UniProtKB/TrEMBL annotation:
It comes from Azonexus hydrophilus. GO terms for molecular function: FAD binding; oxidoreductase activity. Its cofactor is FAD. It comes from the Bacteria. Gene3D superfamilies: 3.30.465.10, 3.30.70.2740, Vanillyl-alcohol Oxidase, Chain A, domain 4 (1.10.45.10). Keywords: FAD, Flavoprotein, Oxidoreductase. Residues 46-224 form the FAD-binding PCMH-type domain. Pfam families: FAD-oxidase_C, FAD_binding_4. This is FAD-binding oxidoreductase. InterPro entries: FAD-bd_oxidored_4_C (IPR004113), FAD-bd_PCMH (IPR016166), FAD-bd_PCMH-like_sf (IPR036318), FAD-bd_PCMH_sub2 (IPR016169), FAD-linked_Oxase-like_C (IPR016164), FAD-linked_OxidoTrans_Type4 (IPR051914), Oxid_FAD_bind_N (IPR006094), Vanillyl_alc_oxidase_C-sub2 (IPR016171).
Length: 493
């Protein structure tokens, strides 16, 4: 993908001199070998070296860094753990990376209000660990939860296996403390169910570091269920497995998790985690119920009835907590497992209406032929959120370009099927062209006006997430769909 031409030119010497005036030496990295680890996030195909990395230890230092960059007109990219898969934390070559890694304190866990206040660099799993002694946990559980930070989760509106029942990050965050690019602090949200004024909390969650830098997050905690059990169902036919997902939801059941793996994904995972997956199955569904023992028993029997009627040929129910975790282990480790069988893989993240899963899977199989690349599929099936893992070898000429075109086709088909180009990984740099497919000029202009209201000079994570109209005109020129040229009113260059 062509990178947008940058309009920023930074005087590095002045920038470094000014940063040294506000940060102690151990909070500032400027040497090439120190900057290298920050050159990409989890989307390693895209890289850029920043001019400096700031590692502030206090909110005052965050304010000083942002004020300095604002005065000098220098781009700033906030960074959590760098596990993002859309290039959101990839540095700007003329800018500064602002790492929140040292903001790693759990400030409060309040059993009575079932909330926790944490700094943004706290790892997702660490919140649940801190809440565990009170019988509570933080529900959104990205598969990367052992490493990713709450700040990154807020910026990406991250999801996970349990979000089908318990909601995404946006449904589990009550309050944010944010520093603007001008260095002003603002707090949004609160304990009450509704707040007067515009819903800036929802606007900030999922804004990919474009509107402000989060310095504190108050999250909801939920009680740990008494019991959780998983049904593992095997299908000979992928289409039937896809239809079974729609049938479960249509039966009025909202499971705690509803995930799917195709044959290629199960084959990659089984030798890695030894979860006992049926390797002859074309698709495996994992469906979790949680609650009291009575609730779980009742829901599991309803789920089994729907799965049997939908054509599952084998059904197993976890009989212990250890077995439940083993069933999930494979799904949760699908990305690294695929990483073991291919030199490189490209993880896509589209969302489609559940009832169209089977259609999408057939189309992906055809794309494997078209591009000559293999693809393993894992899904947050209950949400219709696809994670096709396209396998390629970056050292072979042309393979990355084919993988990228394969991914673009999946995303654009997601839109055509009535879905979206992202379920939880964000747009970042990766899907910026597909934003031109998802939205028309009026919506993109509205996004640009929102950005300008928070960050007039466009310094926070510039050239990400929201494409310029000219970029869309260029992309429309390159990819004409069904004979329709996108943005015909714009001049072509
Ligand atoms: C193996 C693997 C599995 C994954 N599974 C899932 C999954 O199941 N569900 C899911 O949703 N995602 C998943 N992801 C993607 C990723 O882990 C999430 O997007 C996560 O929320 C990123 O957190 P991070 O701390 O690594 O953020 P980073 O990658 O460092 O940053 C992500 C974005 O957040 C911004 N940002 C970070 N901190 C702040 C802050 N304090 N203020 C403002 N902006 C900030 C950055 O600028 C960037 O745009 C997975 C990734 C991997 C590698």
């Amino acid at each position: 993908m062509s990178r947008p031409e940058s309009s920023f030119v930074t005087d590095r010497a002045t920038l470094v001199r000014r940063l040294k005036m506000i940060l102690p030496a151990h909070c500032l990295l400027v040497e090439d070998e120190d900057l290298r680890p920050y050159e990409c996030d989890g989307l390693t195909a895209y890289r850029a070296m920043p001019l400096a990395v700031c590692l502030p230890e206090s909110e005052g230092q965050v304010i000083d860094v942002l004020r300095t960059c604002h005065q000098l007109g220098v781009p700033v990219v906030a960074r959590g753990a760098g596990t993002g898969l859309s290039g959101g934390a990839m540095p700007h070559a003329e800018g500064v990376v602002l790492s929140l890694a040292r903001f790693n304190k759990i400030l409060r866990v309040d059993r009575d209000s079932r909330t926790a206040a944490v700094q943004p660099g706290v790892r997702n799993l660490a919140v649940s660990e801190a809440a565990a002694p009170y019988g509570l946990y933080y529900a959104p559980d990205p598969s990367s939860q052992i490493a990713c930070t709450i700040g990154g989760n807020v910026a990406e509106n991250s999801g996970g296996v349990h979000c089908l029942k318990y909601g995404l990050t946006v449904h589990n965050v009550l309050r944010l403390r944010v520093v603007s690019i001008e260095g002003e602090i603002f707090e949004i949200g609160g304990g009450a169910p509704d707040a007067p004024g515009y819903d800036l909390l929802a606007l900030l969650i999922g804004s990919e570091g474009l509107l402000g830098v989060v310095t504190e997050v108050t999250v909801k905690l939920v009680p740990k269920p008494e019991l959780a059990q998983v049904v593992m169902a095997s299908f000979h036919d992928v289409a039937r497995a896809g239809d079974a997902v729609a049938a479960i939801i249509a039966a009025g059941i909202i499971p705690a998790g509803l995930e799917m793996m195709d044959k290629a994904a199960a084959a990659a995972v089984e030798p890695f985690v030894k979860a006992g997956y049926d390797l002859d199955a074309a698709a495996i569904l994992l469906c979790e119920s949680d609650g009291t023992p009575e609730e779980v028993a009742e829901e599991i029997s309803r789920v089994m009835a729907v799965l049997t009627a939908s054509g599952a040929h084998d059904l197993r129910v976890s009989q212990s907590e250890a077995e439940r975790l083993r069933f999930w282990a494979g799904r949760k480790a699908a990305f690294p497992a695929v990483g073991r069988i291919t030199p490189d893989y490209y993880c896509m993240d589209g969302t489609i209406p559940r009832k169209r899963l089977a259609e999408m899977l057939a189309a992906i199989a055809a794309m494997e032929q078209k591009y000559g690349l293999r693809c393993a599929n894992v899904f947050h099936a209950g949400d219709g959120n696809l994670h096709p893992l396209i396998m390629y070898d970056a050292s072979l000429p042309g393979e990355w370009e084919r993988a990228e075109a394969f991914g673009a086709d999946i995303l654009e088909l997601s839109v055509a099927l009535g879905g979206s180009i992202t379920g939880e990984h964000g747009v970042g740099i990766e899907k910026i062209n597909q934003m031109c497919v998802q939205y028309a000029t009026p919506e993109l202009e509205a996004f640009h006006r929102v950005k300008a209201a928070f960050d007039e000079k466009r310094l926070l994570n510039p050239e990400k997430a929201v494409p310029s109209l000219h970029r869309c005109a260029e992309y429309g020129r390159m990819r004409v769909h069904r004979g329709e040229l996108k943005f015909p009113e714009l001049e072509r260059f």
